[in-house]
Amino acid sequence: MKSGPVNLCLLLAVVCSCYLYTLKFSQPGGQDKLIAGLAGVHQYLPPGTSIHFVNKVPPEPTNSREHIFFPDFVHYILAPAKIGQASKTWKDTTLMVLPANSTDSATAALVAGATVLWQNKDERYLYLLIH
Amino acid sequence: MHPSTRLIIWLSLLLGFTSMVYFLSLPAHLPVIVTCVIVVAYAFISYRWFARHIPSPVGLQSTTGESARAYMILVAGLAVIVYKAYNIEKQYGHWDAWWLWDHHARYLQDSTYWRQLFTLNDEYHPDYPLFLSSLIAFFWRLTGTFNSLVPYTFSIFIAVVIPATIFISLHTRNLTIACFAFVVFAFSDAYHTFALAQYADQPLGFLYLCAFICLEYARQQKHLITVIGGLLGCCIWMKNEGMLLSLIFILFNARTLLANGNATRFAAGIIFPLSVYAYLKLNAPANDLVKGQSMKTLRLLTDGSRYRLIGSYFYTRLTDHALPATICAVFYGVYCYAARRLPGRNILTLIICAIGFALVYLLTPHDLSWHLNTSFDRVLFQLMPAFVYVIARNLCNLRFYTEGGQFQ
Fold it and tell me: Which residue of chain A is at minimal alpha-carbon distance from B161?
C-alpha cells in the first residue's frame, strides 16, 4: 500500500468522526445546559478561589446517571476555582443549586442572612452565589 | 517501517512534545504563541530527521492484488470504526475523562493559577502525569474555549490509529493475520468503549505498541532507538503505569537499547520527557498508592484470597473483552509447547507487565474489589494493542508442516 492513500484514509476517518460528533451533539444536552446555567458565575470566581457548594436538588429521577454526576460535574465546570467540602447550609461564599420550581419563600429561608452575589435560573435549576 | 506508520509515530511524538513544552511554558510564563512557534519548529525539524534517518525498506512491498485487498480491508475497517464510534461516543467521555483529565486541563489552561492543580484533594489525583491534560489545555488556550471536541479528536485519533498501525505494519507479512488483528479491534465494542472514553489508558497503550513496532526495526535502523526512547518517555508522561511498562521494556531489551553505544541514542530520546516528568513529581503531591504503603502492606502479600480475586478478574475480563485475542494467545502458547520453544521475548515482556499490574493490585492500600472494579478493564486495554500486535507478528512467522509439504 502506498502511504498517500493510507494517510488520506486515516485522515478522512478522523475528520468524518469529528464531523459526526458535532452533528450528534449539536443540540445542548443536560451537561451543556448546566455549563450554560453556570456561565455567568465565573466573573465572581477568579481562578484559585475556593468556595462551598450546597446541592439542594432532590435525588430524582432515581438511578439517573446525570444526577449522580451532578455535583462532580459542577466541580469540573468551576475549575480553576475550587469547591471545598460540600455542606448542607451556606457559609462564607457558597454556590447553591436548587430545583427551578423552588418557591420564593423556601429559597429566602435557605439564604437568610446572606448577600446574593449572582443568580441564574434555567428550565431545571436555580443557581445562587451567596456570601 | 511503512511510511504511514512512521508518520503516525512522528505525530504521536509531536503531540507528546507539544504537551511537555506547553507544561514547561507555564512556570516560564511564556505566551501561548511562543509555545506554538517552538512546536512548529520542532515539527519541521523532527519531520526532516524522520525522513532522513528512518527510511522505508524496499523489500517489504506487497503485490498489486494483495495491495488492492489491503486497501479494501483498511477502508472497510475504518468505516466500521467511524460507525461504531458514532454509536458509542459520549460528548464529555466517561467519568474519569472530565473528572480527572479535563478537570486538570482546566487548571493548566490558566497561566497564573495552574499550580492550584497540585493542591486538589487526593481523589482528584493531582500527581498524575499530564500528557493528556496539558495537550488539551494547550488547544483550549489556543482556541479560547473549553470545547469538548478537543479531547474527543485526540481520542478518535487514537481509536483509529491503533488498529490501523497494526494492520499497516503486518499486511506485507501476512494479510490474513493483519486483517484478523484489525478486525479484533474494529468490531470490538469493548475496544471502542474504552478508546472513546477519552481516558489516558488507550493513548498509553498506543505509545507502547509503537515502541514494540520500532523495536522490530531497531537493529537495522539505529536511529529508531532514539524514537523508542521518546516513545517510552511519552508513556511515562502519559500515566504513572507508563514508568512500570517502560522499565520492563528496557529491562527485556537492554542489549538492543543500551549496548554497543546505543545508550546515548536512547538517552537522547528519553531524557527530555523524563526531565519534565521529574519536574512534575517535584511539584506534585505523592501518589496515593505509594503514600498508602506501610508495614501491614507486607501482610497483603500472604493473603491468598487477594490472589484468587485478581486471578478471577484476569480470567473474566480477558474472556469478556478480548476473546479473539485470548484464543490466539492460547493457540500460540500451544504451538510453543508443541514446538518445545519459549515464547518470544516481546510476549514475555507483556506477561511480566501484566504480572506487574497484578502486583500493584495486590499491594493496593484501597479496597481491592473497588480498585479492580474501577480500573482493571482500562488497565487491560493498556497492554492489549501491543499484545495483539506481538501475537499477530509471531503468528505471521508460524509455518505448519504436513507430510506432504509446507502450508501456512
Answer: A10
Query: With an 8 Å Cβ cutoff, is A76 touching chain B?
Result: yes
Burial of B266 by CB count in 10 Å (0-12 exposed, 13-18 middle, 19+ buried)?
buried
Check CB contact of A86 with chain B, cutoff 8 Å: no
Distance between CA atoms of B152 and B198, rounded to whole angstroms? 7
Is A21 at the interface with chain B, CB within 8 A?
yes
Residue type, A63: N
Distance CA B124, CA B130 (A): 13
Q: How far apart are CA B207 and CA B231, in angstroms?
A: 6
Number of domains in chain A: 1
Q: Is residue B118 part of a domain?
A: no
CB-closest option in A5, A14, A82 to B116: A82
pLDDT tens, position by position, B346-381: 999 999 999 999 998 988 888 888 888 888 888 888
Taking residues B73-101, what's their average pLDDT?
92
- Whether B93 contacts B199, CB under 8 Å: yes
Domain containing B397: what range? 288-408
Q: Smallest CA–CA separation between B143 and chain A, in Å? A: 17
Q: pLDDT of B373-405, one tens digit each? A: 888 888 888 999 999 999 898 888 776 555 555
| Complex ipTM value | 0.89
Q: Is residue B235 part of a domain?
A: no
Q: Number of folded domains in chain B? A: 1
User: Is A6 near chain B, with CB under 8 Å?
Assistant: yes
Nearest to A48 among B98, B113, B157 (CB): B113
For A74, name the nearest residue in chain B, comparing CA atoms only. B99
What distance in Å separates residue B97's CA from the closest CA in chain A? 10
pLDDT per residue as tens digits for the range A69-86: 777 888 888 888 888 766
Give strand pairing partners of A53. Answer: A86, A95
